[in-house]
Design goal:
Layout: E1 13-18, E2 23-30, E3 33-41, H1 43-47, H2 54-76, E4 85-91, H3 95-112, E5 116-120, H4 121-127, E6 140-145, E7 150-155, E8 161-167, H5 172-182, H6 189-197, E9 217-219, H7 222-237, H8 244-270, E10 274-278, H9 285-298, E11 301-303, H10 315-326
Parallel strand pairs: 1-4, 4-5, 6-10, 8-9, 10-11
Antiparallel strand pairs: 1-2, 2-3, 6-7, 7-8
Helix pairs in contact: 2-3, 4-10, 5-6, 5-7, 5-8, 6-8, 7-8, 8-9
The chain binds 5'-O-[(R)-(carboxyoxy)(hydroxy)phosphoryl]adenosine and zinc ion.
């Protein structure tokens, strides 16, 4: 375990473990170099129930965690004894699910006598960008869009963030999932809405997710979701047919366009030269293309994690683990799981 006598290495080998929802994941990094990233998902089983059932998730993590860590070490060609630290998600997420990864990580760190690092899952999403570009350094502006959060942040340093504005109700990912349900699409909804939207056009009139006339930057996804419900129901009641692909495409525009526009505007106003992004919604192809183009037009560098590192994974947990390792922020063995943690 960590003690004041522990020598911190400039390029540590860190194992990341993630189990906050339905993905059991492990990854190994050496400095900012990713050596492996493995995932065992219970999403297919969860899909039968239309969403994540916490008890099924916890049981699935219990069965998978040892295997996924073994795979990550094997792929990285690293032995457990070579590890310098274990970084693990301690929140936010499903308590029972978090406890599986956390307890495993505690046991491993304890048996190897190496530091344990508790990682805030959302900070993990933000740190995924560091794995894209070894030279990426704050300050920059970050778009965070996941199942539970939607915000534009000013990343001042590796450890400090300023919230520039965000959603006042549902998160963007939550809205994608709810719209998927309205359109009869299976869980996980976001990717299925994107797939359906590819065959549609932006012709259904929907309100933008941007809250106008607000003194600060604000998004609202609850009203947009209700507008989608109304558009579908009204058409059905009038006996008219409504093209679900058009609804998906129009929703995607209303949900994504203001995020892209405002992120770029914030970056320009703050005078930074780069924009990064993180969270499951950043896996959306339309968002990625729009943000990339808007950044190009504004002369900004756009640093997007690969799609597989936008949705839940352990590479991002290891990446944030590296930041905390360098800052000397280690966790005691008494660290507990937290269902909710403040964003930044
Ligand atoms: O970051 P994440 O994997 O988990 C949380 O920490 O919340 O985000 C999950 C969210 C879900 O709401 C899912 O619908 C959304 O990300 N998502 C997408 C796409 N892939 C995942 N939303 C839009 N388009 C996608 N391709
Ligand atoms: Zn996540």
């Amino acid at each position: 375990m960590y003690s004041p006598n522990t020598t911190l290495k400039p390029t540590p080998i860190i194992l990341g473990i993630e189990s906050s929802c339905d993905e059991t994941a492990a990854a190994v990094i050496c400095g900012r170099k990713l050596l492996s990233s493995e995932i065992i998902s219970s999403a297919t089983e969860q899909a039968k129930y239309g969403g994540v059932v916490p008890e099924i998730a916890s049981r699935a993590h219990t069965e998978a965690v040892d295997e996924v860590v073994r795979r990550a070490l094997k792929t990285a060609n690293v032995s457990a004894k070579q590890l310098d630290a274990v970084a693990v998600t301690y929140g936010a997420g499903l308590l029972g699910a978090l406890l599986v990864g956390l307890s495993f990580a505690k046991g491993l760190a304890c048996s190897l006598n190496i530091p344990l690092i508790g990682v805030n899952h959302i900070r993990g999403h933000l740190a995924a960008a560091y794995l894209v570009d070894e030279n990426l350094k704050p300050p920059f502006v970050t778009l965070l869009a996941s199942g539970g959060h939607t915000a534009v942040l000013y990343t001042e340093s590796y450890l400090s963030f300023r919230d520039l504005g965000g959603t006042c109700d549902d998160a963007a990912g939550e809205a994608f999932d709810k719209v998927a349900r309205i359109l009869g699409l299976d869980y996980p909804g976001g990717a299925n809405v994107e797939r359906l939207a590819r065959g549609g056009e932006n012709v259904v009139k929907l309100p933008s997710a941007l809250v106008k006339n607000s003194s600060r930057l604000q998004f609202s996804y609850s009203g947009l979701k209700t507008a989608v419900i109304n558009a579908v129901h009204n058409a059905e009641q009038r006996g008219e047919s409504i093209n679900y692909a058009d609804v998906a495409c129009s929703f995607q525009h209303a949900a994504v366009d203001p995020l892209v526009k405002k992120t770029v505007e914030c970056a320009k106003n703050l005078g930074v030269d780069a924009v990064t992004a993180g969270g499951g919604v950043i896996a959306n192809g339309y968002l990625r293309d729009s943000l990339t183009k808007a950044c190009q037009k504004a002369g900004l560098r756009c640093v997007l994690p690969e799609k597989r590192f936008c949705t839940d994974n352990a590479a991002m947990i290891a990446a944030e683990g590296l930041t905390q390792y360098r800052a000397g922020n280690f966790a005691p063995l008494s660290i507990n799981a937290c269902a909710r943690i403040p964003l930044v």
